[in-house]
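Input/output pair, single chain:
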Amino acid sequence: MKKVQFVFLRDRSALDARSKAPADVEEILQSCGYETRHINLRFDQPGYLRVPLVSLELLRTILSLHKGTELCLQYPVTKLLFKWHWLLKKRCVRLTTIVHDIESVRYTGKLSEEEREQLSCFDSIIAHTPAMQELLISSGISADRIRLLQLFDYLATPPSPSPLNYQEGMPREVCFAGNLGKSLFLPELQQIVGADLHVLLYGVGLSEEVELSDELQFKGKFAPDDLTLLRGHYGLVWDGDSITTCTGRIGEYLKINAPHKASLYIAAGIPLIVWRHSAIAPYVLEHQLGIAVDSLLELPERLASIDIAQYTRYREAVQVEQMKITQGLHLRNIISAL
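Output:
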């Protein structure tokens, strides 16, 4: 059976400007035997030209597929694809999608009818978590069409394990990486940092409202493939505008998705701190990849209670998971099963 993936690019210059997650998925699929077809979405063109040009390119590409092709796409995908869904089915093309985001849920808290119809077009859906699976099932998508990723893969060379420096009396270091401008809870971190707990921030867009100090430091940004600069005893997976719980639509979204940030920390060999009500919390706790908390206000006391033996168990469990995600095994295993 012929295996093909469509990779949609915003314009001709976008090939090297994609984010880490979709680029890794493309590479993993290529290693699994999928031929890549790049399709230019022509966002550098006015709309009256872009839509017909992209539709025509899609039509030509679909007509070039062998009958019975296994076609894999990363979701969200351009709406123009669904215009030709009938033709894909007529040519007996089997459609698989790997979900990165369900945007209507992310921004409104509910699955829109449009996205429900789009997702219903796929024969197989690779979703993040059991919670995302339940959302899709409750929307009328049969369970046998859904496979679970649990955590995103993160292709990288694991950094050499640093000597374990986790002794009684030394501050616990928590790192937080990402788009800092979107992380509205950061100014409140001053409430929990101190002599026993330091927070290290990595990324871009740090707000002037965040009061930096010896206990709350900004460490700059790093290339996604270079994990040697990221350090900390724990990596924080949190969102929203409060340290007391994950709030707002973006915070609530953690109840169904698997943040790529979690995979970043694991790829760097760092145990996790996650929200107890997040979708990845059961997996983190089951596999001893770190701890889950209701509120970040718990952290000073909670981290102080974790001795060297327990922390070593977290590190060892993370190293097992690190081997899987840095080699793309989560997705590879699902693709092999399909």
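Residues 205 and 315 are 30 Å apart (CA to CA). The mean pLDDT is 93.
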